[in-house]
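Extended Data, record ABC transporter permease
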Amino acid sequence: MMTLATATSARPALAFDKLGVLIALVAVAGAFLPFSIFRANRIVLGEGRMLIDALDGPSAWLTIAAIAVGILVALIRLAPAVKLAIALAVLAVAFVMIGRSATYLTPADNTFARVSPGAGFWLLTFAFALMVADALTRLRFRPWPRIAMLAAVGAALWLLLWSGAWNDLSILKEYANRASAFWNEARTHLLLAFGSVAVATVAGVPLGILCYRVRPVRAAVLNVLNIVQTIPSIALFGLLIAPLAWVAANVPGASTIGISGIGTTPAMVALFAYSLLPIVANTVVGLENVPEAANDAARGMGMTGGQRLMSVELPLAFPVILTGIRIVLVQNIGLATIAALIGGGGFGVFVFQGIGQTAMDLVLLGAVPTVALAFAAAVVLDAIVEMVSVGGRTQ
């Protein structure tokens, strides 16, 4: 018969989460760094305000309590669903309170003062976002729930912006002064990123099929595309200015359709060139990994080479090809920022304007939507790749 002492000793000891220890350390560091940065105007150096000084008393203690609970939950090995819920709650508190901090620190009727998130806020966001990512990985959500969660987070951020809770933050003040320009550059950024990927897909997949079918061509094409990838993006943008300017000046009708040495055209051409290698290479790899048994079965049914390609090989290779497209899209969303250096537009306009004016909040106005767009594209395409892969395996 088990004694009380034996039963007590048989209970599992409190276990620590190894990644949670790192998350807790980052969160503690964030709690001891400035939560907000106050500036007398948009270009002067700011003064860091610790959490206790950046908010009114009740708000500050509520935030401290939420962070403390989040750190404790991060340290202990608990169910992933619990960790996910607590991490999202802490992030929600931090995001609401950074807006309250801006309102609290901005003097009344002062249109020059600026309040930005401080290093503490960014570290806390990173720590608990890492906790969310870890919990999601352990929960192994299927594609549609992941997309639904992304949509829910996007809706929550939209609600926060719509409510006016962030209106006193400096990045929103920069946006208010440039709202029409922001949406114009957003459209340009989307055109550059998605348009270059669409054109590269139309050209790259047939080129990949050619490389798969004709091996001598494969080495030459992939070597050339590898060389293109080694050229720095700024250099490639610059190299395209002279030839495209010549085409615009000497080819009838070229300038009429928008070809020029600076602007959107060289940016689109450069992004197209960068996009080809992953798409072509993944097309080749996907086709090479098609099971030989599937091809043998297709031959046994009397299919021609073209029929096998369209009905067997490409559908089975599609998840790998789509993975290449995902890589290219996320890459081009970031690279499109550089297009502003040659007049191509996009969110990079605000990044380089901010650098030139030493206005870091203007830099954030361009950087934050770029990062958010790349993250959303990665999540959605990852989910689509998984759905296609599962669908292919079940057929």
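Summary. The domain at 179-394 is CATH 1.10.3720.10 (MetI-like fold).
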